[in-house]
């Protein structure tokens, strides 16, 4: 496989249950990149709130996003030649802009799927704090990416192996991979 242009950040984004962690982990392995799960950076208060079926407010999300941005910046400071693959819902433009601050080489990989497909997947998940009841609030908050945001749209209804092939193809075609 082709080597990546080093020092990039790939953020696998989308609503809960769309397959962010699966793709991000596989992509990190393929690129020999560092993997970062943004959910691990949530304070316990955020996890508890979501587990109760209550959506987070912007005031609750911003410190979490700032922690993720700091973790990305710290990674690139200590490992300037190593790519980073992170997961983050990144539903709103302001969240994505915040994540890109100090991290200009950031590409968003937006996994998309119809709500019914995601609900079916979420029903089969074990040991995850995000209840399916919050999915509607996530779809309501989602602001589609615009042309001036470096991103790729990925069909999450494909089998994981096909998603991975498609992502690598799109990244190579868009010169994110050399």
Automatic annotation (TrEMBL):
Name recorded for this polypeptide: Gluconokinase
Native species: Shimia marina
Family annotation (CDD domains): GntK
EC number: 2.7.1.12
Enzyme class, UniProt record, top EC level: transferase
GO cellular component: cytoplasm
Origin superkingdom: Bacteria
Pfam family, one: AAA_18
Family: Belongs to the gluconokinase GntK/GntV family.
